[in-house]
Model the fold of this input.
Amino acid sequence: MKNRFIREAALKKRLNISTQFDDSIETIHADGRRLKQILVNLLSNAVKFTPEGGNVGLEYVADPEGQAVHFTVWDSGIGISREDQQKLFQPFTQLDAGLSRKFSGSGLGLALVSRMTELHGGSVSVESPGVGEGTRFTVSLPWGAPTAIPKDRRPTEGTGADEEPEEAIEKFDLPLGGAAPLLLLAEDNEANIEIMSAYLQAKGYRLIVARNGQEAVDRAKQEHPDLILMDIQMPVMDGIEATRQIRDIPELTSTPIIAVTALAMEGDRERCLATGANEYLSKPVSLKNLTSIIQRLIHRESRP
Ligand code: MN
Done:
């Protein structure tokens, strides 16, 4: 899990992690999965950009006057220049190899943080005195929804104050509800999985991931997803063969399949469509375009 990844990376760099949680908050009502993604993204960035022996922290405070709750992830790391602070949250629209590479080291995670926070009705801000002087990212979520319920209006339970941040974050987990469409993402490239799954989950879809064609066939058979995103070049079994096998499963003959391939070779499109894919996209995929195709196909699926 990513949380463990953060912990291990932090240990390896001998970072001090401190947490400070507002005692007046007992429960936070939020989409737990998104909130967790937001904080995990910010924490991994903080760990990544803080040199050995430095400090990283997570805080949250209630702001009854502003009707908000503020989550801050801070570090004593390399800091961000004023110029770069402005570029940090620029949305990305394309998914390609260059961006995938940069994802591990730049603001792409932050664009997602910003998008997910907006979906929550909140906002993100960044403060850094300058290069070399650390950074504070603050995610502010509205309280009204309600986002947070003051402790005195709740039956008292254990306070989260001295728990590890992971456990404290876990506490916010709430079921997303069964209504969201279930997507199967068949993809073998970890960077693509990371970006696509964060993006699609931010869009409200539930997601299962298969890392090769055989796994895709097995998961499709077990889970009956509402739609399948099928990478073509995958180990063990490629996406063409997986699509063919899925079409042979009686319950899955009409499940929408979008073939996604990096090789935009002459005849690819026809080959994918002939195998039973409903749509064909070549990388780099525009995520905006992708979601509109997904919506259209699921819509068509539910209203024949
Ligand atoms: Mn691939």
Summary: The first helix runs from residue 2 to 12. Residues 21 and 143 are 16 Å apart (CA to CA). The pocket of manganese (II) ion is lined by residues 188-189, 231, 233-234 (CB under 6 Å).
